[in-house]
Design goal:
This protein is an alpha+beta fold. The chain has 10 helices and 15 strands. The strands form 3 sheets. Strands 8-7-6-11-10-9 form a 6-stranded antiparallel β-sheet, with helices on both faces. Strands 2-1-5-4-3 form a 5-stranded antiparallel β-sheet, with helices on one face. Strands 12-13-14-15 form a 4-stranded mixed β-sheet. Helix 1 runs parallel beside helix 3 and helix 4 packs antiparallel against helix 6. The longest helix has about 60 residues. The radius of gyration is 39 Å and the shape is rod-shaped. It starts with 12 loop residues before the first helix and ends with a strand.
């Protein structure tokens, strides 16, 4: 039914047009505005079906389609976006937003007995007026949506910068991938870095499920897309599964994608890829711009965070070196001098009790010196790295036990433990040490544990070997105390 001949009681074409214009301009949310436009056009002209195709202003392709009814909204691919179509069963007009074709509104219907000519010239005029007013409303809604979208990306970039510079995240690249995935409404966020063979490999990934399945996927050397990525150029892909430039084995799992350089100060850190699921709406030119700006900000934050972490590590190393020097130059030397004084006094002492007391004091000083030297060695190890030396591994085990015991076990090394022990022997010793410390931690009234690793004393059969002794003052299950565990092995 056309606007020119409506049944009694139905508002006139002008009233319907005014109502349609008000409906179209009543929303700031873009999707709601588009749906109001299609519904109003159908009501205004009496069409049976309507569809509005939204075009990407940067590329001209169809971004999405909004329609009425249950049918899948589509547009004929051969119709020019800016052309006007007036046929008995088809009426189509472009919608301009700021002199640019935003989309295309297409109505379909069948001529009836009462209106054999189908859509009339009046219908076309009404639709043109509605399209003009809709262009204004859509422009406002699009500006509002773009502003919100830009705000989200800016807030996201700020959040990533704050997270990286405050040192909260455990993996900086995964943090960037996760935040970008959420902002872009992507199926995955991945970071790729150059490989030694000249390709690129996924080193960090964020997905709704099973991100580890993406780790390790590579782009082979020599591909066209790789040349762009390594030169720091962004790559925009309509369909990852069918684009011949894509060579990763996981490309079939995704559709539209953006691949953005993480580059700061002329240094390429890697590439941020944001693929969507197959069949998802393609990224727009606005998406490209905002994501590229985010990637630049994230790359700068990664560089700053790395520099800050380096400064903090350097400060820790310098402080530890200073403490180690102070302990060696001041504490150890004074303890050693005091021990020599006591030994000299012991030799001159005439009373047996005094000699015994002095001998005990000398032993305590020697033990203290050994512990201080062990502490100096521990301070010289990188705090954030796993220990690579055998001494460091022993100290790591005792440090772990200290968290449970509430005090640090005393550790002593005798002989060339680093060079004398083979790898398997070191592993067995650490296992027995771990077992002995766990057993000791379960005893009551324990206040001291002494750990000794001795590689200088031969075994009872005369072979060179290593002896581990773990002594504690805790109470055993049978009520006894002063427990000692000894383990020994050939070198």
């Amino acid at each position: 039914m056309t606007a020119a001949a409506r049944e009694p009681g139905v508002p006139s074409g002008l009233s319907v047009l005014l109502e349609a214009v008000l409906n179209v301009g009543s929303e700031l949310e873009l999707r709601s505005t588009l749906q109001h436009l299609v519904d109003s056009a159908v009501a205004l002209t009496g069409a049976r079906h309507g569809v509005l195709g939204v075009l990407d202003p940067g590329h001209g392709g169809l971004v999405e389609a909004v329609g009425t009814g249950d049918a899948e909204p589509t547009l004929p691919p051969d119709e020019a976006p800016g052309a006007v179509v007036h046929e008995p069963g088809v009426l189509a007009v472009p919608i301009h937003v700021q002199q640019t074709v935003f989309g295309r509104l297409r109505l379909t219907g069948e001529p009836s007995r009462a209106h054999p000519s189908g859509f009339t010239g009046d219908d076309l005029d009404l639709l043109r007026v509605l399209a003009t007013q809709a262009g204004i409303a859509i422009g406002n809604a699009r500006l509002y949506e773009t502003a919100k979208q830009r705000e989200r990306w800016i807030e996201g970039a700020a959040a990533v910068t704050t997270a990286l510079l405050t040192g909260r995240p455990g993996d900086a690249l995964t943090t960037v991938a996760e935040r970008a995935r959420l902002l872009a409404d992507a199926a995955a966020g991945v970071v790729l870095q150059p490989t030694e063979s000249g390709g690129m490999e996924i080193v960090a990934a964020s997905t709704a499920d099973a991100p580890d399945s993406l780790i390790g996927a590579t782009i082979r050397p020599g591909t066209a897309v790789l040349a762009q990525l390594l030169s720091g150029e962004p790559v925009f892909i309509d369909d990852s599964a069918t684009d011949p430039r894509m060579t990763t084995e996981v490309r079939s799992r995704f559709g539209p994608s953006m691949m953005l350089p993480l580059q700061a100060g002329g240094k390429l850190i890697g590439t941020l890829a944001l693929p969507r699921s197959p069949g998802s709406r393609p990224y727009t030119s606005v998406d490209h711009l905002l994501a590229t700006q985010f990637a630049s900000q994230a790359a700068l934050a990664l560089v700053l965070a790395d520099a800050q972490a380096g400064r903090e590590r350097l400060a820790v190393f310098e402080d530890r070196d200073r403490i180690a020097r102070d302990l060696h130059d001041l504490v150890v030397q004074r303890l050693f001098a005091t021990g020599m004084m006591l030994e000299s006094t012991q030799r001159r002492a005439q009373v047996g009790d005094v000699r015994d007391t002095l001998a005990h004091a000398v032993d305590e000083l020697e033990s203290t010196i050994q512990e201080v030297r062990t502490t100096i060695f521990a301070l010289q190890q990188p705090p954030a790295d796993a220990p690579t030396t055998f001494r460091g591994k022993v100290l790591r085990e005792t440090a772990g036990a200290a968290a449970i015991l509430g005090f640090a076990p005393s550790v002593h090394f005798t002989g060339p433990v680093e060079t004398a022990l083979s790898g398997p022997v070191q592993g067995h010793l650490l296992t027995n040490l771990r077992r002995a410390l766990a057993t000791a931690s379960r005893r009551t009234e324990i206040s001291r544990i002494d750990v000794t690793v001795d590689s200088a004393t031969p075994l009872p059969d005369g072979r060179p070997g290593v002896r581990l002794t773990v002594a504690d003052d805790g109470t055993r299950d049978d009520g006894g105390s002063a427990t000692t565990v000894t383990w020994q092995s050939p070198h």
